[in-house]
């Protein structure tokens, strides 16, 4: 059986200590295609005993894995990358089928995920220590960098492959053991596919494990378990706050990438057509189901009407529907209840005075691209992370008001500034209280070698490049006394 065959029987099982085994939980879970509603697979949930076994396997195997030569670790990551390239089309189809990704988004996710693996392959050679001076005669101070041990990764459903590999690949490359708990909506692309790739690449048994079950049943136990040193989570702020609290009670480190209410500021000297084009992509890619997606588009009053006209014209040309169609930009939401939630928000915004210029209707799990203009700062919809294809356009009288509106949120993940003056854009970007801001680009950006992370309620910690090395390793002080010391008062 080839790596990516549709009838891959292991993709209904847990992966523990190098073996594909049935889950031990009582609950049976269906994995559904969000566009067609068809059942992709049925699997038996894991339970606490499965989690115990997975963490123990990761703990034991990581002892030897961390000692392996840098070339061995690099070789596994290079092989994973090669397997991904070999099976690209099959992986893209899995992303379309399981997470409702359009082909446009699935292709982008695949490319980002592969770049993460390629970047992580260099990490074994980038674990640097230091030798520091001492005031004690004959003492040599060594600061060594080591893997932290075992990392627990809780994966999301929206960019399942990319956002899981963002933690898994660096953690393994740096010598850690890993246990993944994938999102229940995407157990294949957020978990079992990754385990399959690493198994085929020759990763030793037990270094990587996957336990799949609902967060309400095993989530707390997964976080509070005594083995993992770090819990990496990507998801909603509400769930992230609970994980942070529970991890804190157990003095456990976290890497939390949470929600966003991201804003694009369009200043009066911006290229309107380019800004509108960028805003359409940043809003509607993957149906807006991206933590970095544009939630609010804040436009200077001098160009507001022209921008709205251009944005509306471009949005009308978007194709919505079947995610497998190469021309589709807006596909299904992950669940139909998300459509109902967004329709309620649209209805509320209209009642509060917003103008509905386009959309506001749905067919099954597909919500038509929707545009709301003249939205005011105090309206309910402005303070929500929409996670859907609903564009909110607001007017600002000047640059100062635009910055104030952009910062008027508890979130601070990503942002955007459009202007004809790049230095002005940089200065405005510095005033936006967000972990990431992009000048003359939309807010959805992620590069494997660059830091990624938010401020305020958008998370704790940084991913990517050297920041990932810092997150998944620890430093220790080991001193060597080359000549015996004389201790005052001791003979």
TrEMBL record:
InterPro entries in the record: Ald_DH/histidinol_DH (IPR016161), Ald_DH_C (IPR016163), Ald_DH_CS_CYS (IPR016160), Ald_DH_CS_GLU (IPR029510), Ald_DH_N (IPR016162), Aldehyde_DH_dom (IPR015590)
Enzyme Commission code: 1.2.1.65
Keywords associated with the record: Aromatic hydrocarbons catabolism, NAD, Oxidoreductase
Record flagged with keyword Oxidoreductase: yes
Keyword Oxidoreductase set for record: yes
Aldehyde dehydrogenase domain ranges (all copies): 20-478
Catalytic EC class: oxidoreductase
Protein origin, superkingdom: Bacteria
One Gene Ontology molecular-function label: salicylaldehyde dehydrogenase (NAD+) activity
Pathway: Aromatic compound metabolism; naphthalene degradation
Location of the active site: 257
Catalytic activity: salicylaldehyde + NAD(+) + H2O = salicylate + NADH + 2 H(+)
Family: Belongs to the aldehyde dehydrogenase family.
Name of the protein in question: Salicylaldehyde dehydrogenase
Organism: Paenibacillus xylanivorans
Lineage: Bacteria, Bacillati, Bacillota, Bacilli, Bacillales
């Amino acid at each position: 059986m080839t790596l990516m065959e549709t009838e891959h029987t292991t993709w209904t099982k847990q992966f523990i200590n190098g073996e594909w085994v049935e889950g031990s939980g009582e609950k049976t879970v269906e994995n559904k295609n969000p566009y067609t509603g068809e059942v992709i697979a049925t699997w038996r949930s894991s339970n606490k005993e499965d989690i115990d076994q997975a963490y123990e396997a990761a703990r034991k195997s990581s002892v030897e894995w961390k000692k392996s030569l840098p070339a061995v670790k690099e070789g596994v990551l290079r092989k994973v990358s090669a397997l991904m390239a070999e099976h690209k089309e099959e992986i893209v189809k899995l992303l379309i089928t399981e997470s409702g990704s359009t082909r446009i988004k699935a292709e982008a996710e695949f490319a980002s995920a592969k770049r993460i693996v390629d970047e992580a392959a260099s990490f074994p050679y980038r674990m640097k220590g230091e030798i520091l001076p001492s005031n004690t005669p004959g003492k040599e101070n060594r600061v060594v960098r080591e893997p932290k041990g075992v990392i627990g990764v809780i994966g999301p459903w929206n960019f399942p492959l990319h956002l899981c590999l963002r933690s898994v690949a660096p953690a393994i490359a740096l010598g850690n053991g890993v246990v993944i708990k994938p999102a229940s909506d995407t157990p294949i692309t957020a978990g079992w596919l990754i385990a399959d790739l690493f198994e085929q690449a020759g990763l030793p048994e037990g270094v990587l494990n996957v336990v799949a079950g609902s967060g309400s049943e095993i989530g707390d136990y997964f976080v509070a378990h005594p083995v993992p040193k770090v819990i990496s989570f990507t998801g909603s702020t509400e769930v992230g706050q609970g994980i942070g609290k529970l991890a804190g009670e157990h003095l456990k480190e976290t890497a939390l990438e949470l929600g966003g209410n991201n804003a694009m500021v369009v200043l009066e000297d911006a290229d309107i057509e380019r800004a509108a084009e960028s805003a359409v992509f940043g809003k509607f890619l993957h149906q807006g189901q991206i933590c970095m997606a544009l939630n609010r588009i804040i436009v200077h009053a001098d160009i507001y009407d022209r921008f709205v006209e251009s944005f509306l014209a471009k949005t009308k040309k978007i194709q919505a529907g079947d995610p497998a169609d190469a021309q589709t930009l807006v596909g299904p939401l992950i669940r139909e209840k998300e459509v109902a939630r967004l329709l309620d928000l649209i209805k509320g915004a209209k009642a509060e005075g917003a103008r509905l210029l386009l959309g506001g209707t749905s067919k099954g799990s597909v919500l038509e691209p929707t545009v709301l203009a003249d939205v005011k700062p105090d309206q309910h919809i402005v303070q929500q992370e929409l996670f859907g294809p609903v564009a909110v356009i607001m007017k600002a009288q000047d640059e100062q008001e635009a910055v104030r509106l952009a910062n008027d949120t508890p979130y601070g993940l990503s942002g955007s500034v459009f202007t004809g003056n790049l230095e002005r854009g940089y200065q405005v970007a510095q005033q936006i209280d967000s972990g990431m801001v992009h000048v003359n680009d939309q807010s959805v950006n992620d590069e494997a070698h660059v830091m990624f992370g938010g401020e305020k309620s958008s998370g704790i910690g940084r991913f990517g490049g050297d920041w990932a090395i810092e997150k998944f390793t620890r430093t220790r002080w080991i001193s060597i006394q080359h000549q015996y010391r004389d201790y005052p008062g001791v003979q």
